[in-house]
Structures are given as structure tokens and as C-alpha cells.
TrEMBL record:
Domain (PH): residue spans on this chain: 36-161
Pfam family, one: bPH_11
Listed name of the protein: PH domain-containing protein
InterPro entries, sorted: PH_bac (IPR057446)
Length: 180
């Protein structure tokens, strides 16, 4: 086979692969059913007192509650990024680099737990902190799971305890273990 034909075949296959990946990402962003946009992060005064320090983490992804493979791509929720997470009186603030910040209001939080993985990251054991929340109960009562891989795992217990205190005692979502 002449070299020009081999190169042409490889270029066509590479272009088809890239086109398929782009179509898949667009389909992920549209999703099977619409996901309401998370609320904007309020100003510092409206957030209330800090219950934890800002903890460095990796925002892994957001999935449908209970289905760790059903990644949500809408509103930038499927974009993995470096982040800091902080529990405040008004809710949990996730400040992300290179992606929109995420604010989980206190009223939307349902549970906090640990998991060994979710779409985009499998760590084994109980390496991810998972927040279960419902952005708009009337539109999507099932809710969402947001996974965070903390840079310093020992801070996970403090984060989980502060979040659990914020929401009170609630049952954990299926697939996650509630902190106590």
C-alpha cells in the first residue's frame, strides 16, 4: 500500500473519531431530560457564616441521583475541573477553575456521603465525597449527585460533618453511604 493511501486512511479515521466525540458531547449536554440550571452563587453577605474553610478538591462530575454513570452535561455540570468547596450557612459553594461555579442551596441538599467512583473518576474505596441535591423538585424530583475528590482526604470528614449538620438528618441516596 502506498504511503499516501495509509496517511489518507488515518486522517479520515481520525476525523471520524473526532466528529463522533463532538456529537456525543453535544448529546450529553442536551440530555435525555432537561436539568434545571443551578442557582447563581450569591454575594458574600447572602452566603452567611463559613462552616468550613475552603477545601481544595477536584470537581469530578454531576450525575443523576443514584445512577453514577448517568453524567449530566448541561450547564457545565459535566466538566471536570479543579475547585474549592466550602460549606456556608446558605449552602455549599463550589468555586471551579475553567468552568461555571456551582452553588447548592441549603434547601436543595438531601444527603452527603462517600463513594468509590462516578462518571469520570473511579478511585476505589470511599474516595469521593458525594452531595445529593435537588435543584428544582417540581421539574426533576429525582435530583443530582455531585462528586468531589478532596486533595486532602482527612478534610472529608469535616466537610461531610458540616454538610450533614447543615441539612439535618436525612436518608442517603441509593449508591452513596450517608455520613454519620
Amino acid at each position: 500500500m502506498p504511503p499516501w493511501l495509509s496517511v489518507t486512511i488515518l486522517v479520515v479515521l481520525g476525523a471520524a473519531l473526532l466528529l463522533g466525540m463532538a456529537r456525543g458531547w453535544r448529546r450529553l449536554q442536551r440530555g435525555a431530560s432537561p436539568v434545571p440550571a443551578p442557582p447563581a452563587v450569591p454575594d458574600e453577605d447572602a452566603l452567611g457564616a463559613a462552616r468550613t474553610e475552603e477545601v481544595p478538591a477536584t470537581y469530578v462530575s454531576t450525575t443523576r441521583a443514584g445512577d453514577w454513570l448517568d453524567r449530566v452535561g448541561a450547564h457545565g455540570l459535566g466538566v471536570r475541573s479543579a475547585a474549592t468547596v466550602q460549606v456556608r450557612d446558605a449552602g455549599v459553594v463550589l468555586r471551579r477553575r475553567g468552568a461555571p461555579d456551582v452553588f447548592v442551596p441549603r434547601a436543595a441538599l438531601r444527603a452527603v456521603g462517600m463513594s468509590g467512583g462516578m462518571a469520570g473518576k473511579v478511585v476505589g474505596g470511599e474516595g469521593l465525597v458525594v452531595l445529593t441535591w435537588v435543584p428544582a423538585p417540581a421539574e426533576d424530583p429525582r435530583g443530582l449527585d455531585t462528586g468531589l475528590r478532596l486533595r486532602h482526604p482527612r478534610q472529608g470528614e469535616e466537610l461531610r460533618a458540616a454538610t450533614q449538620e447543615l441539612i439535618g438528618s436525612t436518608p442517603a441516596a441509593s449508591g452513596s453511604e450517608e455520613s454519620s
